[in-house]
């Protein structure tokens, strides 16, 4: 009986694929470890989506003097023009040109419509250089050459012959082509082992690049559309946040101090380690002060913390902390604290997670502050705001999966008597909720705090007045003898008649 099992009879003995590191941050993770060596790949997408830069970056990451990279330009921009711009990226090393990487321009042959000559020149150069990486940019432009009779058949035959040669040479190859999403039935998509699809879309004045692995033989890529960004370093891809498996919680969960001792007492010891807490309240209720005290409490306990801010610059934020006698500069110098400022209006959730996750791993942070979720939403590109709740769910899940304890603030404008404590309908996304409110008492505007929810833990259910002092948050008396507190004007309960 025929069998695909190796002679030893074990499926585990099958040889694995050799994977190449792409040199594009985030792309290897999306591909499931890297790009299969000796594969025939297509990088497709609209003009300006980053196809050439992505291919060039992969070539420089894998080329060597023994197995160089060969970059072939057909039609489109000339080699000189392309090199002028590609040299601006940090990955491009001009000293390696002519040794590790080589460039060949076949524009004349392509313009003449002599596809046989184009193929012959490619074969000639490959035989001479013995490259490990070959990139052809842009073979799709051959379809615009009007001098070739029965053009579509000629181009199709050219691609088939080229794929055959590239496979025989045992090299990793990339064809770059400008395609629209409706063209997936093109024969080249059948021939390709891997297809990387790049897009660039404008939405309400914000431009967002995305990458999708449409096809990848031999590996299990991460599904979905992944945000990409072009920087001085080249292309960077931010993997769409995967759903993280929740690890079993220990029977006894340690508690972390909030930095406010009376609040810790109300929470029966503080925040359970690994929880995600949301502090919600209107403007001016001291949300940032609470968040700063949570981070400072961790630093005093020899922990490390990351604070992600969206509304104020770091120097202003740190100065505000000093205003409540919290000097964070020394913690930053000692690498016990990272303050990340994320403000661009075309930000993505995946970029935010990448920044925070990198900071958490670099300093071994156990506490993460998001101040605030409201500012985070405003910093996102408009297209990402449409599914903000889903994005927030993925963000919280990915960060708590790292083992950190999250403290997030949300600005909420609650109408009189409204029981919507957090806004955004995100209550189910978080473990613990603390609500801050304004109330009117004796002709004064006072602030009151209540613990709305602690998942799997008991807590105080009283309302407590609090104030922001020069030393931070200070809890005052309980409003046990008052009613209609949520209506905004508490009144003392009348003693029951005897």
Could you explain how this protein is built, in words?
The strands form five sheets. A nine-stranded mixed β-sheet has the order 5-4-6-7-3-8-9-10-11, sandwiched between helices. It has a nine-stranded mixed β-sheet with strand order 16-15-17-18-14-19-20-21-22, sandwiched between helices. Helix 5 packs parallel to helix 6 and helix 12 packs parallel to helix 15. It starts with 18 loop residues before the first strand and ends in a 6-residue tail after the last strand. The protein has two domains: 223 residues, 3-Layer(aba) Sandwich (Rossmann fold), CATH 3.40.50.300; 238 residues, Rossmann fold (3-Layer(aba) Sandwich). It is built from 15 helices and 24 strands. The protein is elongated and about 100 Å long. It is an alpha/beta fold. A hairpin with a 2-residue loop joins strand 8 and strand 9.
Layout of SSEs?
Blueprint: E1 19-20, H1 27-31, E2 35-36, E3 40-45, H2 51-62, E4 69-73, H3 79-86, E5 101-105, H4 107-111, H5 115-129, E6 133-137, H6 151-168, E7 172-177, H7 187-191, E8 194-203, E9 206-216, E10 226-231, E11 234-238, E12 255-256, H8 261-266, E13 271-272, E14 276-281, H9 287-300, E15 305-309, H10 314-322, H11 329-333, E16 337-341, H12 349-363, E17 367-371, H13 373-379, H14 382-385, H15 388-400, E18 405-411, E19 432-441, E20 444-454, E21 464-469, E22 472-478, E23 482-483, E24 491-492
Parallel strand pairs: 3-7, 3-8, 4-5, 4-6, 6-7, 14-18, 14-19, 15-16, 15-17, 17-18
Antiparallel strand pairs: 1-2, 8-9, 9-10, 10-11, 12-13, 19-20, 20-21, 21-22, 23-24
Helix pairs in contact: 5-6, 12-15
């Amino acid at each position: 009986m025929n069998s695909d099992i190796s002679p030893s009879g074990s499926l585990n003995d099958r040889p694995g694929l050799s994977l190449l590191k792409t040199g594009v941050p985030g792309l290897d993770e999306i591909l499931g470890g890297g790009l299969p060596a000796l594969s025939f790949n297509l990088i497709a997408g609209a003009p300006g989506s980053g196809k050439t830069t992505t291919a060039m970056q992969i070539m420089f990451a894998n080329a060597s003097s023994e197995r160089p990279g060969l970059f072939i330009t057909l039609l489109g921009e000339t080699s000189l023009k392309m090199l002028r711009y590609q040299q601006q990226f940090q990955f491009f090393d001009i000293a390696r040109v002519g040794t590790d990487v080589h460039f060949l321009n076949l524009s004349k042959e392509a313009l003449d419509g002599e596809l046989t000559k184009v193929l012959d020149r490619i074969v000639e150069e490959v035989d001479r250089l013995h490259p490990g990486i070959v990139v052809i940019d842009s073979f799709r432009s051959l379809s615009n050459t009007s001098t070739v009779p029965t053009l579509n058949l000629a181009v199709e035959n050219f691609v088939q012959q080229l794929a055959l040669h590239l496979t025989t040479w045992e090299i990793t190859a990339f064809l770059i082509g400008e395609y629209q999403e409706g063209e997936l039935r093109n024969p080249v998509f059948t021939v390709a082992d891997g297809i990387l699809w790049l897009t660039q879309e404008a939405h309400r004045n914000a431009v967002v690049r995305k990458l999708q692995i449409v096809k990848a033989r031999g590996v299990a890529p991460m599904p979905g559309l992944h945000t990409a960004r072009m920087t001085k370093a080249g292309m960077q891809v931010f993997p769409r946040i995967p759903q993280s498996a929740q690890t079993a919680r220990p029977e006894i969960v340690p508690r972390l101090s909030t930095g406010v001792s009376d609040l810790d007492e109300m929470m029966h010891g503080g925040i359970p380690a690994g929880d995600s807490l949301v502090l919600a309240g209107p403007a001016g209720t001291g949300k940032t002060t609470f968040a700063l005290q949570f981070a400072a409490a961790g630093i005093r306990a020899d922990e490390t913390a990351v604070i992600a801010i969206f509304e104020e610059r770091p120097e202003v934020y740190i100065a505000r902390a000093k205003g409540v006698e919290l000097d964070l500069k020394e913690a930053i110098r000692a690498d016990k604290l990272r303050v990340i400022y994320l403000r661009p209006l075309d930000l993505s959730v995946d970029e935010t997670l990448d920044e925070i996750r990198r900071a958490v791993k670099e300093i071994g942070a156990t506490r993460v502050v998001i101040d605030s979720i409201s500012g985070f939403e405003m910093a996102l590109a408009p297209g990402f705001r449409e599914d903000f709740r889903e994005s927030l769910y993925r963000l919280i899940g990915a960060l708590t999966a790292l083992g950190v304890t999250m403290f997030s603030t949300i600005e909420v404008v609650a109408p009189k008597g409204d029981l919507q404590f957090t806004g955004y309908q995100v209550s189910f996304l978080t473990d613990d909720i603390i609500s801050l409110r304004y109330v009117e008492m004796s002709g004064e505007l006072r602030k009151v705090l209540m613990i709305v929810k602690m998942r799997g833990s008991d807590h105080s259910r009283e309302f407590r007045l609090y104030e922001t002092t020069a030393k931070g948050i200070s809890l005052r008396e309980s409003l046990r003898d008052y009613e209609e507190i949520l209506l905004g004007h508490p009144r003392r309960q009348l003693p029951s008649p005897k």
